[in-house]
């Protein structure tokens, strides 16, 4: 004896009223919350001034170290030696503690030991955010 099951009957009786109630409640909540936010922005207040304030969202300027094919170091267009490079990186790290970044731009023909010297100077200056870009001159 075959049993006949009506499978489509259960899906036809889904009650949509609770879902519509939830949507209306969410809509009302966001409308009210937006209104309160507008009122806070319209308040007439005088904010205090700080003489030494620095914006927190400003990212420090990157230090770019160029290494030419002869292994010479250039920072801000000036040729410097290894101790001067270390001093410049330490000063940059002191000005922006924990946030300073360095870009090492090296010629493709330079022996990699010169790039390692710059990376070592970054580590000695406690700068951990550095990257190496190889470029080709000519």
Order of helices and strands: HEEEHEHE
How far the N terminus sits from the C terminus, by CA atoms, comes to 89 Å
As laid out across the biggest beta sheet, the strand order is 3-2-1-4-5
Structural class: alpha/beta
Number of helices: 3
Contiguous low-pLDDT stretches (5 residues minimum) are none
- The percent of residues in helical segments reads 25-40%
Say how many strands there are.
5
Average pLDDT figure:
81
Describe the protein.
The model has no long low-confidence stretch (mean pLDDT 81). Helices cover 38% and strands 18% of the residues. It contains 3 helices and 5 strands, in the order αβββαβαβ. A 5-stranded mixed sheet has the order 3-2-1-4-5, with helices on one face. Helix 2 crosses helix 3. The chain is α/β, with parallel strands linked by helices. The protein is elongated, with a radius of gyration of 31 Å.
């Amino acid at each position: 004896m075959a049993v006949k099951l009506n499978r489509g009957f259960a899906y036809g009786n889904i009650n949509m009223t609770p879902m519509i109630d939830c949507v209306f409640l969410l809509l009302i909540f966001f409308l009210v919350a937006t209104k309160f936010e507008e009122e806070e922005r319209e308040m007439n207040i005088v904010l205090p001034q700080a003489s030494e304030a620095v914006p927190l969202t400003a990212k420090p300027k990157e230090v770019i170290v160029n290494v030419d094919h002869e292994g010479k170091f250039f920072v801000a267009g000036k040729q410097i030696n290894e101790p001067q490079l270390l001093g410049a990186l330490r000063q940059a790290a002191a000005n922006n503690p924990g946030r300073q970044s360095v870009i090492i731009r090296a010629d493709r023909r330079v022996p990699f030991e010169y790039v390692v010297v710059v990376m070592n100077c970054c580590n000695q200056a406690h700068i951990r955010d550095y990257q190496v870009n190889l470029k080709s001159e000519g």
